[in-house]
Amino acid sequence: MTLRRNLGIISLFSIIYLAIATVTRTVLLAMVPKGSGLTVPLVAQAYAAGLLFDVASLAYLLIPAALYLILAPRRLVEHRKHAWLVRAAFLVIIAALIFGAVAEYFFFEEFATRFNFIAVDYLIYTGEVIGNIRESYPLVPIVGAILAVALILTRLLQGVIDRAAATTFSGRRRRLGAALLALPLAALLFVNISATAISANSYANELAGNGLYGLFAAFRNNELDFTRFYATRDDRRVMARLRDMVKERNNHFIASPPRMTRQITGEGREKRLNVIVVVEESLSAEFLGAWGDTRGLSPNIDRLARESLVFSHLYASGTRTIRGLEALTLSIPPLPGTSIVKRPDNGGFRSWGEIMKEKGYDTRYIYAGYGYFDNMNAFFSANGFDIVDRNSFAQDEITFANIWGVCDEDLFRKTIRESRASFAAGRPFFSMVMTTSNHRPFTYPAGTIDIPPKTGRDGGVKYADHAIGRFLAEARKEPWFKDTVFVFVADHCASSAGKTDLPVKKYEIPLLVYAPHHVKPGRVDRMMAQIDVAPTVLGLLNMSYTTDFLGHDILKADNRPERAFISTYQKLGYIEGDRLLILSPQKGVSLAHFDRRSGATEPLPMDERLLQEALAWYQGANYIYKNRLNRIP
After folding, report:
1. 491 appears as a binding residue in the annotation
2. 235 assigned binding-site residue
3. Res 223: pLDDT
4. Alpha helices in 247-320 (DSSP H)
5. Is 492 annotated for ligand binding?
6. Which is a Gene Ontology cellular component entry for this protein (predicted)?
7. The predicted structure's pLDDT at residue 369
């Protein structure tokens, strides 16, 4: 009873925190698009589950207060200025809570999720993130408004704060502090982030969460142990099945199990052509006229599609740039947790860059931004690439830049200059070029297109398309153009938000291979995964090489079932035909039929054969990675 009377300032803070959390949840609910499938009972369930996570996150937030109650010396808490210290702390805390709620609003607007592993990744690169926010939103007015609200609340509640603090600090504060420390322990033992999965509707699951709780849960689980969290089968059987699944007609194994090392034999005379792989930031297929869009945002790509070999049914591995780069470079299905690009000990793989380097190519990773971001420089330099990033640009080579990097036109001009250098030295070149302009804040040189900068995604797409058109127009003037293969592919889609955890339609990305002197225009409608891009391009060059790739040359896939891989950092999706099998933490598995046009899904009973295949790919990829079986000996 005494402890309850002493709660004072703790009760006040708890009420305010829970009120802000509830208002945040309600605002996010209002942001959910129409047709999301939310019902009144489902929303009520989300609010009930959300309260649990709000209380759990509150328990963790009370740890500093508990420690202060226990450790603060008596002379401090009894000092006449202690009340001012409490008011100042209250002001800072309220401002921080409101700032967190506003930040979550913008995060939900961009990603349609509460704070998760993406937020964890971004916290590491505060310069880029703050710069992006500053260039995308009126930061000074927003921060000013937050501080004003916090000041007004603190002033209005000053009397309540003083009385609540006096109640708390005049009682048995150390016993109260010790009791409060039991709350986070209870939250740790009895509350798990998996409890947000209240339904098959991803919006309801997001509303059921708490942003702060999700942030720390993602930080704790940024790399998930597959064998601990996911359904598994016997490793030997899994690897034997995978070995059978990666076989193709023009390769043979040159290493004993469980290694997948194979010798690929080119079918025809090898073409030592230059290769430029342009990885377009966030370029969803749904924005392009060649994939059915009618807004006219991509006239250059649409024209290019008529002159290229177009792969119309490609799925991105994940939702982050580094997941796409991992798939394109290493040809491995996505692993749970963060991308291999971000992990320690991420070098020495038999990557696309290493394969081309062994062939005598100059190999470059050309990036519009600073390559320390997302660990790109460390990864690419350790896997066969020379680095050309923003640090490599002379001042007069930059006509426009934002926080993410130089504009696409500047990047492509740099790519042409690097290509000239290799050509002048008599060496073939392989460049992987990563753009950044099609990214919030969507700023680019004014006057280049008919959509003003900083007005949204449509402008970003149209400028990216404009830059591609300019790039090819300039490249056609070069003596090396006729012997160069241009590959255009996206890293991931603009958004992966949807009613389901893995909305298949939100993973469709374009792939065009353009080499008018060597590759006939055409259209390949066969489903493929992002891990199939490198083997397919190498196949078009008739290259013979040693590989540990798990992807297929899609043009030599014969009668194999069409399959693809999509993922978040926890959910691993395996697509075969019109069925999607999802592997989840806590050994979860589910199967659904999906409609490619509408994106609608319908649950299906589990198919053991399909599950065995999905595990062969995912568990097998994890086994290979963990045991370093795709590294160069």
Report:
1. yes
2. no
3. 66
4. 299-306
5. yes
6. plasma membrane
7. 97
Q: Which residues are the active-site residues? A: 321
281 is in an annotated binding site: yes
Looking at residue 125, its pLDDT comes to 66
Least confident piece of the model among 134-143, 442-451, 467-476: 134-143
For residues 266 and 200, membership in a common domain is answered with: no
Same domain, 127 and 183: yes
| Band of pLDDT at residue 5, cut at 50, 70 and 90 | very low
Answer yes or no: is 518 a known binding residue.
no
Instruction: Give exposure, 139-171, as e/b (b: 16+ Cβ within 10 Å).
Output: eeeeeeebeeebeebbeebeeebeebbebbbeb
Is residue 70 one of the residues assigned to a domain?
yes
Measured distance CA(496)–CA(504) in Å, rounded? 9
pLDDT tens string 241-257: 999 999 988 899 999 99
Among 151, 224, 155, CA closest to 194: 224
Going by pLDDT thresholds of 50, 70 and 90, the confidence category of residue 316 is: very high
Q: Which amino acid is at 103?
A: A
pLDDT value, residue 117: 74
**Residue 433 region by backbone torsions, left for phi larger than 0, else alpha for psi between -120 and 50, else beta:** beta
Three-state secondary-structure class, residue 432: strand
The CATH number assigned to the domain holding 453 equals 3.40.720.10
DSSP 113: S
Model pLDDT for residues 492-537, shown as the tens digit of each residue: 999 876 667 899 999 999 999 999 999 999 999 999 999 999 999 9
Domain around 614: 235-626
Q: What share of the chain is helix, strand, coil (3-state, %, to 5)?
A: 50, 15, 35
The whole-chain average pLDDT of the chain stands at: 92
Is the domain of 49 the same as that of 128? yes
My answer on whether 134 and 254 are in the same domain is no
| 330's tokens | 């290493």
Assign 571 to helix, strand or coil.
coil
Q: Is 605:594 a contact under the CB 8 Å cutoff? A: no
475 close to 481: Cβ distance less than 8 angstroms: yes
Query: Collapsing DSSP states into helix, strand and coil, what is residue 631?
Result: strand
Length of the chain: 633
Q: Give me the DSSP letters along 267-287.
A: SSS----EEEEEEETT--GGG
Q: Which of 175, 196, 220 is the last residue of a domain?
A: 220
3-state secondary structure 461-485: HHHHHHHHHHHHHHHCCCCCHHHEE
